[in-house]
Amino acid sequence: MASKNKAALSNMKYEIATELGVNLKQGYNGDLTSKQAGSVGGEMVKRMVNQYTSQMNGSSSNQQR
How far is Cα of residue 32 from the mean position of the Cα atoms in its chain? Predict the structure, then answer.
């Protein structure tokens, strides 16, 4: 299970980097600026929080019925 989660996060990271125009590659990415790396990480957190919030809202509305 942890391996699936790790792969999903990795895929998300590369997908977001592509969307933001950040040249992220496998392995070492020390050539990225802090702003570039932070924008990818920040967008990942934003999407995970939105996904979690949506799941919580969906499960609480099901419990109230």
Answer: 18
pLDDT, mean of residues 10-32: 96
State the Cα–Cα distance between residues 15 and 19, nearest whole angstrom.
6
Whole-angstrom Cα distance, residue 56 to residue 53? 5
pLDDT at residue 63 tops 60: no
In this predicted structure, the answer to whether residue 25 has a pLDDT above a threshold of 90 is: yes
What is each CA distance from 41 to 22, 26, 52, in whole angstroms?
A: 12, 16, 16
What's the token pair of residue 29?
């990415």
- Please, are residues 34 and 42 in contact by the beta-carbon 8 Å criterion? no
- What's this model's pTM, rounded to 2 decimal places? 0.78
DSSP string across 28-62? --TTS-HHHHHHHHHHHHHHHHHHHHHHHHHHHHH
